[in-house]
Specification:
CATH architecture of the largest domain: Sandwich
Oligomer: single chain
Helix content: under 10%
CATH class of the largest domain: Mainly Beta
Number of helices: 1
Low-confidence stretches: none
């Protein structure tokens, strides 16, 4: 699963430790050392999207960070001919995973995903985890 990339696993400024990859240094560093710990231990998520008739090709699957940040980076993929999807090089953390209805053009464009909040799967991904999660489409 090594991709040649890494992410900021943690950031520390003196005794101030960030639980993620962001720390506010606007007040100045005050001569303290900034320590950034990198990791290449990405996770991955894969599965098959089905409806009542079986696997669904062309459905959009979203993987959105659960941190509540409206500017958070959201990944999306389209299912293959056999209904399968996959996300690779995912930073560990909590995410919501959801497949949107094929005829919901707004959701396919990433708008109005709140309507799918009840159908979204909550994931807690860990370093180097390969998670298999099949989804149902059409449930809002």
């Amino acid at each position: 699963m090594e991709s040649g990339y890494s992410y900021a696993q943690s950031v520390r400024l003196g005794a101030l430790m960030s639980g993620g990859n962001v720390i506010d240094v606007r007040p100045g560093m005050g001569g303290q050392t900034l320590v950034v710990t990198l990791s290449s231990g990405f996770a991955s998520v894969a599965g098959v999207v089905r409806d009542t008739k079986g696997p669904v090709a062309g459905t959009v699957v979203y993987l959105r960070p659960e941190n509540g940040d409206p500017l958070a980076w959201t990944s999306r993929v389209q299912t293959r001919e056999d209904g399968s999807y996959s996300f690779s090089s995912v930073m560990p953390g909590k995410y919501r995973l959801v497949a949107v209805e094929a005829d919901d053009l707004a959701a396919r464009a990433g708008l109005g995903l709140e309507e799918y909040a009840g159908a979204a799967e909550l994931l807690d991904l860990h370093e180097r985890e390969d998670l298999r999660r099949d989804l149902r489409v059409g449930a809002r």
